[in-house]
Amino acid sequence: MRLAAALLFAGTAAPALAQSGQQAQGQGQTSSSGFQFGGDGPIEIESDKLEVRDHDNIAIFTGNVQLVQGKLLLKTVKMTVYYKNSGGGGSDNAQVDHMEAEGKVYIKQNDQVATGDQGTYDMGTGVLVLTGKEVVLTQGDNVVVGCKFVSNSKTGQSKLDGCGKGGDSGRIKMLLQPGSQSN
């Protein structure tokens, strides 16, 4: 394996997930704060197994996958990292394009938690999508539930869609606790 996990995430300095307990008007949009991927801190990944497919430009982490960067913790069953070579051949010049997490995705930072069944993060656009039968966003005692969470770290906008079928957007559920602390 020529691709080390430490090199896999070189250049991932974009925020990935923004979530707050503040609800904007309209379709479940929230203002940006909270979860942050990237930055200058080291990223540590642990898993039971790592498979690198250099010819396909992917690395697959499986079994009790845990990603830690600063105060950010991501846990999942399987994480696939898609990378692209930035010239010169060989994986030493690899940069991450996007990541996909499957199987009970759990993201925590400080008092904020987001859970879902699948998640993707695109490094170029800064867009995170978390989907599932039930996507749950919590901060302290406050809870918001839907089925599709989209967060754009470049614009600072987040959107949570309900669980409707067909063209129906469904309904979002929110529980706000009076007097609860949320940053």
How far is the first residue's CA from the last residue's CA? 42 Å
**Main sheet overview:** 11 strands, antiparallel
Number of helices: 1
Q: Strand pairing plus helix content: what structural class?
A: mainly beta
The secondary-structure element order is: HEEEEEEEEEEE
Low-confidence spans: pLDDT under 50, at least 5 residues? 1-34
Let me know the average pLDDT: 76
Helix content: under 10%
What this model shows, in words?
The chain is mainly β. It has one domain (5-175): lipopolysaccharide transport protein A fold (Sandwich). 2% of the residues lie in helices and 52% in strands. Strands 1, 2, 3, 4, 5, 6, 7, 8, 9, 10 and 11 form an 11-stranded antiparallel β-sheet that branches. Strand 3 (49-53) and strand 4 form a beta hairpin. The radius of gyration is 17 Å and the shape is globular. The relative contact order is 0.19.
Q: How does the SSE layout of this entry go?
A:
Layout: H1 5-8, E1 29-31, E2 44-46, E3 49-53, E4 58-69, E5 72-85, E6 94-109, E7 112-122, E8 127-139, E9 142-152, E10 157-161, E11 173-175
Antiparallel strand pairs: 1-10, 2-4, 3-4, 4-5, 5-6, 6-7, 7-8, 8-9, 9-10, 9-11
Overview in brief:
The chain is mostly beta strands. Helix content is 2%, strand content 52%. It starts with a helix and ends in an 8-residue tail after the last strand.
